[in-house]
Records
---
Amino acid sequence: MYKSRKLAFFFMPAVVGITGVLTFTAAAQNLPAPMTTTTFGKNYHLGFERPEAWGLKYFASTTLLSGLQPPEPAEGYKVGSVSVGFEIGWLPTLDEGQRRVGFNGTALQDLNQSPPPFHLLGVTSHLLAFGLERPLVQRGQWTLSWRGYGQVGTIKGALTCPTAVLAFAPGSPGNPTSCVGKSGDVASLRYAGHEFQVAYKIRSMPKLVPHVAAGGNFIDGVFQTNAPVVKGLDRTRLWTRGGTFSATGGATYLVTSHAAITVDAFYSPLWVTRKPGAPRTNHGLFNVRALLSYTFR
């Protein structure tokens, strides 16, 4: 499991959120010299339910700019008001079967690296998420809002050839990709999406505002291998594209007229065929996110 942090800036009444999303991060190290200087690799398109594609859409989904938002002030939005938020999130650890995504589900990948938003433990992120949001309908205690969002950027780390496999002989079960040094792989986690959110103000508990949201997302993922192996430097490129669905539910508690705490549960079903001929299964993403926001107005 891990925690990730975001900084978000919201401008009302149309809410524009620009978020430096920092997820599963740390520094890629210099590649050791491979046994040969030969560079090889091809460009492959992956079906959206292949294991490698599942890994890309899983981690892109962890960064979706969905669900959490500052609540509407009691006196309404004012021109020039700004809300600043600090977000943390919990993500479950992937088991060995879920991490076995390489070579169409046969090779284990190091997908549980630590995600703090600093240079740490082998992975570095350069991700920017952005969004536009506004209320569509406001009737009494009910509010229907719409949000559009997207993300660009990459993460870099030793995913194909982590340090753990270098203790095993190239080509052995412990090192099936024949690694001879630590890799510097790069994954692009790009997406665009939108969602609708319904919020309800409880008359008897005016400080508590429950809400639910549902969204659709288009994910464009690329995995660029940069791995020193026995044959040389593997520069294979894998790419995939497809759509996902996501849903959130939670509540906001108004601590003061300016500060609020929001907690959401997030879920996105993610379909995958782990091995050729295996049944299609749903290995979805479930996590919990929390946002502390403060509005200046």
Note: Residues 2-296 form one domain.
---
Amino acid sequence: MKIGIVVNPFAGLGGAVALKGSDGRDIVLEALSRGATPKAQLRAAVAMKAAFGDNRPSDEVTLVTASGDMGEKVLQSLNLPCQSVYQCQPDSTADDTKAVINRFVELNVDLIVFAGGDGTARDVLDVLTTKTLTSIPVIGIPAGVKIHSAVYASTPTQAGELIGLIVSGKAMSLQEAQVMDLDEQAFRQGRVSSRCYGYLTVPVDDSRMQLIKQGGLNHEDLIVQDIAAEVIENMEDDVYYLVGSGSTTAEIMHQLDLKNTLLGVDIICNRELVASDVDEKSIVRLTEGHQAKMVITIIGGQGHLFGRGNQQLSSTVIRQVGRENIIIIATGEKIQSLDKRPMISDTGDTQLDRQLAGLYPVVTGYQHKTLYRLE
């Protein structure tokens, strides 16, 4: 078995610094200038560790990758033998990702594993579509800001578990999954404009592969208003509230008549706006020494609380705020859309994710809560 592994080293770079994406060289440079730290390699390493543990792959398994930050460093750090089949530059771009995928096709790989976001998934799709080889199975390791596509596992660990199952010889069914992407420019202006660009083949595993993000439904508007009223009524004086992204949390800002960043994080205190569209460092600085709580919602259909479009709420921020000060809001229909699957924390800090696991009261209406589990 031959597995091709590629990492987009700049995936997710813009999340913690509130840039809402990392597509394009200008955005990458802007993110780096704001102090963003690349984390895609760390997430890829988590997946590979879950796939192989401390064991070397058998002689029947060959890992091929690109040089340096696009894969080789990750595999070497885990003492996993690999072949570098593409020489990349330190400032790699989408063209490098496509070139690597082309090399994988030339080498007749049996499985393609890529770490990135929706833009990376599109790069993979572009090559495989051109080659009419979209039947090659793929597994995405979530490492970007925008991860709406159903070609990604729910977490890096679960991506690794899937790889491990395949390597162990477990028979797995395959299915086509949508590759989605947002218009990042519209995204930064508060408009959600996404569409399906095509389909890639992925393993069938509803417990490990994520579903396509589902939007809210119009008839839920009254329920959302009730949820917002419940949160506002219980707000405490002199407490900083971090209001996360999404239309459900946006209703809180609307009822308070405050400027809202639909796809970012705002801070309010005593029902007044403290700061808009804050990044990770600003949150840490502004809330240090103050009691703080965060109000967040789940992504319908997927169930993610952390790690999807709200990387500003980093592990550092979550630890500073405290598990007991996380307020989760969601409509009943959004919870039902999970079909009994748990909510998901994918902060990139596996120890924190384990500490966050457990049952949470989810505000689902006015004076109404539903107990639901997070994993």
Note: The chain has two domains: 2-203, 218-374.
---
Amino acid sequence: MVAPTENPTLGYLLWRLTTRLRAAIDRALAPLGVTHAQYTLLASLYGFTRVGARPSQREVADWTGLEPIFVSKLARALEHAGLIERAEHPADTRAVQLRLTDHGAAIAERAIGIVQAFQEEFTAPIGGTQSPRTRAVVRTLQTLLGTVEQRSDSMSPAPATLTGQDVGEAEGALSSLLERVLAGTNTGLSRTAYIALRVLAVRGPAESPAALRDLLASQPQLGLDQSQATDLLRDLEVRGLISGAGSDRAAPTELTPAGAAVHASLAEAVTTVTRRLYADLDPDELAVAHNVLAALTQRATRLRDEL
């Protein structure tokens, strides 16, 4: 007799996978008091909110693929929990408009973080959520869904777009990661000190302490004014890592042999972590991100000067 799972069908495997995913996410979200189904509604509303939309209950049902009556049941439960608000739709008296409360938005953010972490762990055997294998599976499932499910584009929120908050959060996370890496080297050097050493290592000697000071102070991401930049350079000179920082004349400021060795050691530690950070990210997508961020930097600088 042939075992049922010896030659499993695609439908059977998808059913098994969906059941397992739902149960696992229910367990992961239990501390927040949210079920997988409720998360689907909260996360969808959060996505609509990010693009300034106030969807109706029917629009959320169309977007999630859930039955309207089930969405109504979920919405009432979430309203009772103080996570969403239901109100009469301003353009259609027969419709109900949904909105996250402040508490609901906070819970949604935490839940999304939990689910994203779970997805990374779940897809780890095929390289993580951004791996080519995972993206191929996603495209396959999207193709299959397209054959059995037609969702009106007018009911879909606009795709997630890059915002200043995204850029700020990424910069903060990367800065925090760099600080953690540097702390593990036991050199006692801060992120700004490492960057100052890196500037000299990559660009070569600065023509004067003032030139290097002005360069560092002109970088908004470092958060240094000229006085703080001067103090930073003097501290590096006291440590024996650079020379010429305390000179009042136009003398070059450069790495000492000890400074070059320390920078090389730090750069190696940073590079090791950076490889893990960018692992499996599509090179083409990284190129697009680079171009977008470069354009944003130029535009923000120009607009700052205009204001």
Note: The CA atoms of residues 194 and 263 lie 7 Å apart.
---
Amino acid sequence: MMDELREMARAPVAIFDRFLGELQRVTRDKTISAPVGIERLKDLQASMVREIEESLQKFRSKVGEVERRLHGILRPARPPLYEEIKQVTQRLQHLLGLAIQREQLLRSWEDQPPEAVVEGYRAALSRHEVERAELYEAEAERVLLRKGNAAALQTFLSLRIQAEESRLDPVQKQAKADLKEIERLKHEVTLSTRVVASTLKVSGGIAAAGAGWRSGGRLRLEPQRQSRTAVLILPDAHPGMTAQLVDVSRTGMRLALPQELPPGAVLNFIVRTPDGRDGEVRMQAEVRWCRADGRAPGRFLAGVRLLRRPDDQWFSLLRRLAEVQRDGVVVLDANEA
């Protein structure tokens, strides 16, 4: 910007220097008669004046543009103070209104059956009440989990996924696709570094970075992580229930259940990481064994094995569980699940 102005400011002098050079050439040319030379000098002078005037006009225009830009940087335009206060006050009133609406919803849900909560969310979506729908999306899952209706919870989660997906603009959709691709690449790198580590029998950097999970390995969760990692078992030939995740591997899990399940029972379940960053993971598994937990009366432990091939979302769940478990221990436990 300033370099261009400096160049334009030097233009009149450069034009005049060129005129002087032409003047000297004409006066030294002995083949040009005096009358012709005078006419040529008049033409050169007129041309020089026009050029200098044009350069000055461009310079003034550019100066005005640059000055406006620089003054805008020094004194950016802003609304009057009253308008700023008004905007902030209106925003605060809007947020207070949303907070009141949230409290009203939470109180009404306490007396409503789970199906009514889901229908309220469906109605907010159909009326395009975005903020009300977002209140449902922020609070209703916790309420439905407490009410213990697996079918209503599953319906709500399906509706929420569709609603959140519909709000994505093209840039966000591309970002979501790119994040999924990154997860796939991270998984590939994890597998390749584990192969390198096992092949070269190295320890330290490569092994620590890529071999957090070993073939047949199982991550055993700390007790507080178990209570915060809920597994929602959807009803089928057995009642629906909420279980706790005791440990997990690439091919199965060990669950703590409120009631016994027979070996061979097929479970459709939803599991989420403790911090909820990766959404729910839906899988299907078969109960391989189930027995009473001798350390907790009324609780049962069951080993389940996945019935379909793990996907990227499942591996993402395993990575998130490993990340949030700072002191977790990976042990080899081939006999379970």
Note: The chain has four domains: 2-74, 97-166, 170-208, 214-332.
